Amino acid sequence: MSAVIGITFGNTTSSIAVATQDGKVDVIANPDGDRSIPSALSYVGSDEYHGTQAQNQLIRNAPNTVVNFRDYIGKKYEEINAKDSHQVGAPAIKAADGGIAYEITRNGNQETLSVNEITKRHFKQLKLAAEDYIGKDIEGVVITVPTDFTAHQREELTKVSNEAGLKVLQLINEPSAALLAHLSNEEDKLLQDKIYVVADFGGIRSDAAVISVRGGVLTILATAHDHGLGGSKLDAALAEFFAKEFEKKYKANPRTNQRSLAKLIAESVVVKKTLSNVQTSTCSIESLAEGFDFHTTINRLRYELTARQPLSEMTAFVEKVVTKAGLETLDIDEVLLVGGSSHTPKLASNVSFIFPESTVVVAPSLDSKAANPSELIARGAALQASLIESFDEEEVKESLQPVVVNTQHLAKPIGIKTADGQFQPILVAETAYPIKKSVEVTNGDSAAVAIQLFEGKRTIKETVIEAEKSEDPEDSEDDYSDEEPEIKKEVVYEAGQLLAELTLKDLKPNSKLEVIVNVTQDGTLHVSGRELKQGSVAVKGEVTSA
Amino acid sequence: MSIVLPSTSSSEAFKASSKYTAAVRRPIEPVGRYFLAHASRTLRGHTWSEYEK
Ligand SMILES: Nc1ncnc2c1ncn2[C@@H]1O[C@H](COP(=O)(O)OP(=O)(O)OP(=O)(O)O)[C@@H](O)[C@H]1O
Ligand SMILES: [Mg+2]
């Protein structure tokens, strides 16, 4: 027996997931019990440590501990900034081939490990964890990558994974995997035509994508990346806050020594995560500096003030990707918050603040039923793996050809005008074609009706919402003298350019009619209308593209 | 609530008025079952009805 799995491989953590027979997805815990497995390796004596155990070595054994290496795959040393603030543990060095490597000491001997070698070892550990948990061999994997991973990076990652014994079935984009998992959670959600923002806040980077979903097909409209903005910035802000407090109390500086700094950061991560769940947290570090222990408490509000800068940068980052897509926040139906840092309540509330009320922001602090943002990407990868499991390699490859993937998308919505002059969309903007859709309509009491096919025109409708009058006369006086009427904005499509007109006649009152719009591969739009009864003859016509 | 069409006195069965706005070419994401349906429609010209189930 064998299984296929999904893997998300981040600079900070990796996760493995497997889809079960009944369509559910399990995120796999490794032997340490972790589902978010730190992407870290550490060498002590002759032993190799992985995951949390390796991460913990950053305090005692930093020079032999390798972290944050994912983005270096397939890169030249010259292309990266090895002085990045997140450079902790073994420093990245230039490899003989111009790539990136790490020098570690194992059993007293110096060893140079290339990024590919480190990644291969990491993948072997993930494979072991997966096989241990599932009890089967792993036959194939779907791995997620950031949308700005180059073709060369994708090739290298595929090669390394295959060498580690994890045969790559497909590499897919992280935000698409996350959205696929989110949309597969609810029946029919995939078939609702909506525009999403997937905002992924990780450890050392932030990524966002605007994705339209049309007829279950996902299209990325824009992406944004910030290498450097992530949870580590929140840790650093908190660590600095604690360092100041410690310094004031003991007149000792915990920032001057590598080990003290590592202890401070490690505890800040714990405190930060605790504050995502509860309002206050203790912080205790033994022998932080010059032999002094450090014990204190901090509440969530204090933390949010301390980390205000990176938190507002993250919020602005989400706004930026919407602008990049040529859209306004009003156009976004849902924002899906992904990545470990998306557990942060203040981040979720800041993000929901920049969107209108009609936009749903999905995050655990806003909706207790929301999926774990740390798991969404791996879940999507597992779903995709089970979906393509039965296809052979050639079939998967064939489906990734440009002729399939590079698809035409409608620039504007296409629909019909109703009896009261409203525009009724049938195909929304950004729909990929070929596509076919139908709507059921009626003639009401007219014997002959027109099917008028229009392109929609985007307008913004403003509705003034009067402040509600309070029942209590005492309240009313001070409460609303200063209250401004709220203006609710929404995107409304009106009938714009008339494309074609069809006539259906000789109808009995309230007959059931059907309008079908079909855009074929070559861009020809076929429209037809007919009475929904046996033997009826359809009226048809064609519209071409400009 | 059903959609009611406007009445007409025209006797012309079909009349095209203008072209629709030129489409935008973008890559679609190769994930999910509706992508696979799209792929096999494009590659093998499968009909819609095979996926309407
Ligand atoms: N409950 C939590 N509350 C706040 N932050 C959290 C929580 N859980 C994890 N994090 C933070 O999330 C970050 C890791 O996110 P994730 O696992 O998505 O990283 P990644 O995809 O490997 O990121 P990158 O490649 O950006 O480094 C870390 O900074 C971690 O401290
Ligand atoms: Mg990530």
Automatic annotation (TrEMBL), chain A:
Region (Disordered): 465-486
Assigned keywords, A-Z: ATP-binding, Nucleotide-binding
GO molecular function: ATP binding; ATP-dependent protein folding chaperone; unfolded protein binding
Biased composition (Acidic residues): 471-485
Swiss-Prot/TrEMBL GO biological process terms: 'de novo' cotranslational protein folding; cytoplasmic translation; regulation of translational fidelity; rRNA processing; translational frameshifting
GO cellular component: cytosol; nucleus; protein folding chaperone complex
PANTHER family linked to this entry: HEAT SHOCK PROTEIN PDR13, HSC70CB, ISOFORM G-RELATED
Protein family per UniProt: Belongs to the heat shock protein 70 family.
Designated name of the protein: HSP70-domain-containing protein
Organism, scientific name: Suhomyces tanzawaensis NRRL Y-17324
